[in-house]
Design goal:
This protein has 375 residues and is an alpha/beta fold. The protein is 48% helix and 16% strand. It has 13 helices and 13 strands. The strands form 2 sheets. Strands 1, 2, 5, 6, 7, 8, 9, 10, 11, 12 and 13 form an 11-stranded mixed beta sheet that branches. The chain has a two-stranded antiparallel sheet with strand order 3-4. α1 crosses α4.
Length: 375
């Protein structure tokens, strides 16, 4: 077993052993694979049995990538990150000759940092990245995507709701000629408020990505590393990975995947965070709000012109003007509201320009832990 520029060379003919939090005895790679494949979900995905038959068949495709990087944004996931690595290890050893896992610690406040250090010492292909503070999931993803060294990048959450055993299906779809493949959940295991907020986020994405792509967006993705060349110079602190991917390619696809209940803890996304993320996407990557403001201004002007014609026509036909303070107050309120709304939209764009001129970074790395030692 030898370390390469992209992580770990796949071993053959010998068993590597490792320990993991929650396991009382060391597990060989074969044992880890059997435990992972014992999952009913994996048995459904791999109908030919747990292990080599299905994987060897799909890996034998001519356009199958030889190396895979897995990027995991981690936040307060000390309870799940170790199990995630066990399952990733079993999957990656079967689908790639070289692979790496990049754990980006996004300012966790629990024992996640210690857990990542232990995993880096345990798995030679794992790299831990410790950010200076909590920047957000997409900022952490951007950091990991930029550090990835393999041919294909897979992004996955740390909560085990996206089963790592689905990764071969994502990569297989990518091998058909696509540049980005989303794993869209068959049925999301979220609370009602989270589902509603996610739909609002997708509505915002439709303004930037188009309706078809936005409908299938998820945090579980397989990406060709060459796509990141399209946003290599991006420097803004407002980050949406899905929008940036459209800068590098138009070849998107999606496949249905399973979505498991959260293994531990609670979701760190709130309605407020999702709505702010939606607002950032629309105002940061689209001119739709400006177009809406222009349309409102034009509509208000047309409405005012119609009112003027009505007042003049009534004066000419009846010799009297339109009486009443409520009428005038209503008109003033309408036009004032449109003006304030338009000014607010323009202010949002000016604020974006201001922050870009400040060149505020999307993230700052405190340290990188590689091979058990700070790099």
């Amino acid at each position: 077993m030898s370390r390469t520029s992209c992580g770990l060379e796949r071993t053959t003919g010998r068993a590597a052993s490792f320990r993991n939090v929650g396991w009382r005895t060391p597990l060989t790679i074969a044992q880890a694979r059997r435990k992972s494949c014992a999952d009913p979900l994996y048995s459904r995905l791999v109908p030919n049995g747990p292990g080599a038959t299905f994987i060897d068949k799909i890996v034998s495709q001519n356009n199958w990538p030889s190396s895979v990087s897995v990027v995991v944004p981690v936040f307060n996931a000390a309870e799940t990150v170790s199990e995630l690595l066990v399952r990733l290890d079993a999957v990656l050893r079967g689908i790639a000759t070289r692979f790496e896992v990049i754990l980006v610690n996004d300012g966790s406040t629990d024992n996640t940092t210690t857990a990542i250090e232990a995993l880096v010492a345990q798995y030679p292909y794992v790299r831990g990245v410790d950010l200076m503070r909590n920047y957000g999931q997409h900022n952490a993803l951007l950091c990991g995507v930029r550090l990835a060294e393999c041919e294909v990048i897979v992004t996955i959450d740390d909560d085990l709701q996206n089963p790592p055993e689905e990764i071969p299906r994502l990569v297989a779809k990518l091998a058909e000629g696509y540049d980005v493949v989303y794993g869209t959940p068959n049925a999301q295991q979220h609370e009602l408020w989270r589902v509603i907020a996610s739909r609002i986020t997708r509505m915002a994405l439709q303004q930037v990505l188009g309706a078809e792509t936005a409908r299938h967006v998820s945090a579980f993705r397989a990406i060709r590393t060459s796509v990141r060349d399209g946003f290599i110079g991006y420097r803004s602190s407002f980050v949406s990975i899905d929008v940036l991917l459209t800068w590098g390619t138009s070849r998107f696809a999606a496949i249905p995947v399973a979505h498991a209940p959260r293994a531990a803890g609670v979701s760190h996304y709130t309605v407020r965070k999702l709505l702010i993320h939606s607002l950032n996407m629309v105002t940061g990557f689209s001119t739709t709000p400006l177009q809406v403001a222009s349309l409102l201004g034009f509509s208000a002007t047309a409405f005012g012109f119609c009112i003027l014609l009505y007042v003049l026509g009534r004066y000419v036909m009846q010799g009297t003007s339109v009486p009443g303070f409520p009428f005038l107050a209503s008109l003033i309120s309408i036009f004032s509201g449109v003006q304030l709304f338009t000014i607010g939209v323009i202010g949002e764009y000016l604020a974006r320009m201001h922050f870009r001129m400040l060149e505020r970074p999307a993230y700052a790395v405190r340290r990188v832990v590689d091979g058990g030692k700070p790099a």
